[in-house]
Write a sequence for this structure.
């Protein structure tokens, strides 16, 4: 169904060098804008930067490929990246950018985000 | 209501709340099918200065399944964009709106139309203009003309409209939600021993003076059908997963994939059949997963309530319910379509997949003398063969649940006499605006001035 959310599998940074690089970029990008929001696990947003997390591994959202940022209200302020620390204990993060979602598993960044809100 | 405010979460999100879906062979262009999805329920026509608009942040879709798997083969997507001409006035319009490009009209909406067919996405049109809301004789002096200007003809024989319309669905909400106290039969109701009513009364149309926002598209039949003539139709509304207010930018941000927050196929499905605790969940599911809700169709709560609320009126229905008999008739009507051999000369079967879709056999020609009771009224061009704007779906479904359609699957069953006459007491004539004989078929919206 075209309206279903399509989610990439969690990224394993040890799988290949490119992924490791992606993971490092992800960590820098996230931490640069880490303003942790409401909720037990929190939200972090980075507005107006290149979606480094999402672009190398876009979510499989082919059915919605035509309505990317140009169609969304967020377009006025470029593409926001929103990071949801879904499970601080396991390091599960969900990274939203444009109309895509990437899942990451990174206990280190999860721990840093958690420390930041204490 | 058909699906107005039918689930807890979506009742708080009106711009994404689907209220009705219609699908029928166009009576004035029988080579085409008209699909209509209504949103934003129960609009008080005078509701300014911020009159009703589609959500710029909502993805509206009308889906067509033409191979019976409960998944879309063709999807029409509608995305809206609001344009404010003058930020320094509080007014929706600063003078009469005489055309869609009137400089007096401050807050305008435009939309894009995209088609997804078998995974291939194509933008069919962009920057199509919506009409304004119907304000009153000074602001929108010739509303019908404005609406006609908002009917757009596209290549491929497609016609499209998106904007305000008069509510065409009619229902006596006050009586139905007052413990199913149907006014024409209220003296037969238990009244819980309070003896409130000593006379029966005609129905009252609770939606007689409200508007909705319609998304309507007319498409050649050949562009919708697959190997067979039957299509399944539903609508959905989706929002991006993340919404966030950026205080520095002083604006809302949206991000992430779209997820479905509302859907609608057959009228009253989620409203009447699905229990309160699962309505939000149902709204998030695709029709292809409706097997998990099939028990609510096979054993509808309302079928058990009718004999209790109207003692002695539905004895045969009471026995059917007490026996725990699955309602195969309702499963066919709502979840699979009616196979051939059940109703002579008619079928709208899509296969064994249980999916709530409005099923339309596109080979059934429009009726010259339509019966608003559709198939149970002897008119196979009406509900549940698709749904026309004037079909009396409340009465049809009340009677079906009361047992009038069970003989389709068990000829030994004799419906109660009341099952054939039960109604909320309304007809299409209860809709003051009436209906149009041409696209988009729903009536001119009620104006704020005349319907304060």
């Amino acid at each position: 169904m075209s309206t279903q959310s399509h989610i990439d599998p969690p990224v394993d940074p040890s799988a290949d060098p490119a992924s490791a690089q992606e993971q490092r970029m992800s960590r820098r990008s996230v931490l640069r804008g880490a303003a942790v929001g409401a909720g037990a696990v929190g939200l972090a947003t980075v507005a107006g930067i290149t979606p480094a997390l999402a672009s190398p591994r876009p979510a499989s959202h082919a059915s919605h490929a035509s309505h990317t940022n140009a169609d969304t209200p967020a377009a006025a302020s470029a593409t926001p990246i929103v990071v949801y620390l879904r499970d601080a204990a396991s390091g599960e993060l969900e990274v939203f950018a444009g109309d895509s979602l990437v899942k990451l598993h990174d206990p280190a960044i999860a721990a840093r985000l958690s420390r930041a809100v204490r | 209501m058909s699906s107005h405010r039918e689930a807890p979460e979506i009742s708080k999100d009106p711009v994404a709340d689907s209220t009705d879906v219609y699908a029928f062979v166009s009576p004035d262009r029988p080579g085409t099918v008209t699909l209509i999805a209504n949103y934003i329920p129960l609009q008080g026509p005078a509701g300014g200065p911020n009159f009703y608009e589609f959500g710029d942040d909502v993805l509206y879709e009308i889906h067509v399944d033409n191979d019976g798997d409960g998944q879309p083969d063709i999807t029409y997507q509608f995305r809206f964009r609001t344009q404010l001409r003058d930020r320094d006035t509080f007014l929706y319009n600063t003078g009469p709106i005489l055309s869609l490009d009137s400089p007096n009209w401050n807050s305008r909406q435009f939309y894009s139309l995209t088609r997804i067919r078998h995974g291939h996405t194509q933008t069919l049109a962009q920057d199509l203009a919506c009409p304004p809301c119907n304000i009153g004789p000074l602001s929108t002096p010739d509303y019908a003309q404005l609406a006609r200007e908002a009917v757009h003809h596209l290549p491929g024989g497609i016609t499209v409209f998106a904007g305000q319309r008069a509510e065409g669905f009619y229902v006596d909400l006050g009586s139905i939600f007052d413990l199913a106290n149907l006014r024409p039969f209220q003296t037969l109701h238990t009244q819980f021993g309070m003896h409130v009513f000593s006379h029966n009364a005609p129905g009252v149309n609770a939606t007689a003076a409200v508007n909705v926002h319609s998304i309507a598209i007319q498409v050649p039949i050949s562009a919708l059908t697959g190997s067979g003539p039957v299509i399944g139709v539903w609508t959905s509304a989706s929002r991006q997963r993340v919404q966030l207010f950026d205080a520095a930018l002083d604006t809302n941000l949206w991000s992430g994939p779209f997820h479905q927050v509302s859907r609608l196929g057959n009228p009253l499905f989620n409203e009447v059949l699905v229990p309160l605790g699962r309505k939000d969940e149902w709204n998030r599911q695709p029709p292809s997963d409706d097997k998990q809700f099939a028990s609510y169709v096979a054993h509808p709560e309302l079928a058990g309530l009718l004999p209790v609320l109207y003692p002695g009126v539905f004895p045969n229905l009471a026995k059917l319910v007490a026996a725990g008999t699955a309602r195969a008739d309702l499963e066919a009507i709502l979840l699979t379509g009616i196979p051939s051999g059940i109703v002579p000369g008619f079928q709208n079967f899509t296969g064994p997949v249980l999916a709530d879709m409005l099923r339309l056999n596109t080979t059934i020609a429009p009726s010259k003398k339509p019966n608003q009771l559709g198939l149970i009224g002897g008119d196979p061009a009406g509900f549940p063969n698709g749904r026309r704007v004037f079909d009396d779906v409340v009465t049809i479904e009340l009677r079906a649940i009361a047992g009038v359609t069970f003989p389709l699957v068990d000829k030994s069953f004799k419906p109660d006499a009341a099952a054939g006459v039960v109604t909320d007491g309304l007809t299409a004539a209860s809709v003051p605006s009436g209906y149009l004989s041409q696209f988009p078929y729903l009536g001119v919206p009620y104006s704020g001035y005349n319907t304060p």
